[in-house]
Every structure is written in C-alpha cells, then in structure tokens.
Amino acid sequence: MINRALSSEAAPKGNQPSLLSAQGITKSFGGIRAVQGVNFDVAVGEIVGLVGPNGSGKSTLLGCLSRDILLDAGRIVFDGTDVTRLRAMQVARNGIGRTFQNVRIFPELSVWENALMGRQWKGVGLRDMLRPADIATRQRAADLIELMGFPQLIHEYAGNLSGGQMRLLELVMAMMSRPRLVMLDEATSGVNPTLIESLKHYVKVLNQEERVAFIVVEHNIGFIFSIADRIVVLNDGRLLADGSPEQIQHNEEVIVAYLGA
Ligand SMILES: Nc1ncnc2c1ncn2[C@@H]1O[C@H](COP(=O)(O)OP(=O)(O)OP(=O)(O)O)[C@@H](O)[C@H]1O
Fold first, then answer.
1. Does any ligand 1 atom lie closer than 6 A to the CB of residue 27?
2. Cα–Cα distance between 14 and 184 in angstroms, integer?
C-alpha cells in the first residue's frame, strides 16, 4: 500500500550517491545539432527539472538517456551499470521508466488493463502479458490507481479519460516496474490546474515513499520550481546552467535565454 500523505520530514537529498551519470551526450539529426556534449547527473531520490526554450534539445536528451534515441557520442552509467549500448527495453528493465510528450496509452483498453500493460517494462513477453497477472502485480496496479485518485474509473476505457487523467495513467504504467528513475516529458501539457496539483503531489509521494528519482521536462516553470531539487537548463543543445531553483532563478544567462524579463 502506498501512503498518499506526504511526510513533513522529507529525506535529505544532499550527498546522495549518483544514480544516473551521462557524459558528453551528443545527437544530431542531419545537419541539426540537437544535443551537443551535455553532461547530466541525477542522484538517488533526486528530482531534476530539465528546462529550456523550444528546440533546445530537452526531449532529445531524454530520448538519449532512455535509449529511445541512438546517441552519436557519449556515455551513460545508470546505477553502476554502463547502459550506453543497451536497448530501451533493457534500460527499462534496469530501472528507468518514462512518460512521453504525446501520451502513450492503449485507448481501447481499460484503465486496469493499461496498468497491467506497464509490466512490459519489466520485460514480460507478449505471451505472459496475455496470462492473468500474479497477485503482487494486481496489488501494485490497484495501489497505483488508488494513489492517482481514480479507482472509480478502473473499468473505464482509457480513451474516455481526460487529458490529465491519461497522463496520470501513463505514470501508473511507468511505475508498475518499480523504477528507480522516472522521466516525465511535458507531463503538465493539456492538464487542468487541479490535476497539475495532483500530479505534483503524486510525484512527491512516490519520491518520498519509494525514493524514485525524477527527471521532469517542462515548460510549466511554476511546476518545476515547486517540485525540483535541482534544475538543468539547455539552450541550443548545450548545457546553459545547472543549479538549485534559487540559483537558476537568479542566473543572468538563464534569465536572458529562457526565463525572460
Ligand atoms: N526526429 C527528428 N528529426 C529531425 N530533427 C529533430 C528530430 N527531433 C528533434 N529534432 C530537432 O532537434 C532540435 C531539438 O529538438 P527537441 O525536441 O529535443 O527540443 P525540445 O527542447 O524538447 O523542444 P520542445 O520544447 O519544443 O519540445 C530541434 O531543432 C528539433 O527540430
């Protein structure tokens, strides 16, 4: 059972061991240098915001880290294992989950069936996916659906959910394999303010209860500043700044390139 309440005593995050370490990540599409030599780290249990102007390379960097995009150069170590050459499914099995800018759920399946589809990230093959899930898996799905606040929609077709509920369901699916790191790509896009608050709460609960680290790619700066322990700013495919929300807020280069006047 996942405790929905936030503890007033969050675990300290300073000096946590490294969970993800990416060095020199580089990716071009034809002549477009989307990401150029970016170094990027996430500590155990850390929430890192990844921001920058449109086209600055955020989604490409995320895709490189989750191995959905083949990188041109660079090295990625996750939890002590070099995952640079692994395929996306293998990386997921190692403990990285993600959601996508364009939600990837199965609209013709129910909320419950979608949650169980999250097992795919644990490397469960198609044949096993068609078999009934074991008790522990069913309990995990029920707990996550309960946590995200829509147990009453458990038998609803996922295609009938609101945009915000779909994004929460995608998070349920990503959490099914008990990842140590989850990447959220534009998770607040098209989501109403109430559900954005819910999303923020659930991310914090999962972070606190299961020590899940998050990389949060966002244009919603208010969301990032209210949730991130650290913020990384990209500009034109390069790392512009990396620091605490306080440092980023007052960084002149970031203000000029991204936060604006
Ligand atoms: N599959 C692709 N083929 C060609 N160019 C691409 C591809 N994906 C991204 N790009 C280009 O790479 C650059 C970085 O794009 P990316 O989507 O990573 O930026 P972003 O910061 O996530 O942007 P946004 O905030 O608008 O989502 C852009 O110039 C984009 O047009």
1. no
2. 22
55 lines ligand 1 (CB under 6 A): yes
Q: Ligand 1, atom 25: nearest CA belongs to which residue? A: 54
Please give the Cα distance from 62 to 30 (Å, whole number).
19
pTM of the full structure: 0.89
**127 Cα–ligand 1 center, Å:** 36
Q: Is 53 in the pocket of ligand 1 (CB under 6 A)?
A: no
Residue 113 burial (CB count, 10 A): 16
Which residues, listed in sequence order, are joined to residue 139 by a DSSP beta bridge? none
Q: Chunked in runs of 10, what are the mean pLDDT values of the chain (261 residues)?
A: 63 75 96 95 96 94 92 95 88 84 84 84 58 83 90 91 89 91 89 88 93 93 94 95 93 83 49
Cα 28 to Cα 35, 204, 237: the distances in Å are: 7, 34, 10
pLDDT of residue 12: 52
55 Cα: distance to centroid of ligand 1 (angstroms): 5
Q: Write down the ipTM of this complex.
A: 0.97
Domain locations in the chain?
Answer: 18-260
**Contact between residue 256 and residue 249 where contact means Cβ atoms under 8 Å apart:** no
Q: Find the helix or strand (DSSP H, E) in which 175 lies.
A: helix 163-175
CATH number of this structure's domain 18-260, picked from the four choices 3.40.50.300, 1.10.630.10, 2.40.50.140, 3.30.470.20:
3.40.50.300
**How many angstroms does the Cα of residue 76 sit away from the middle of ligand 1?**
21
DSSP label at residue 157: B
Written as one letter, the residue type at 117 is: M
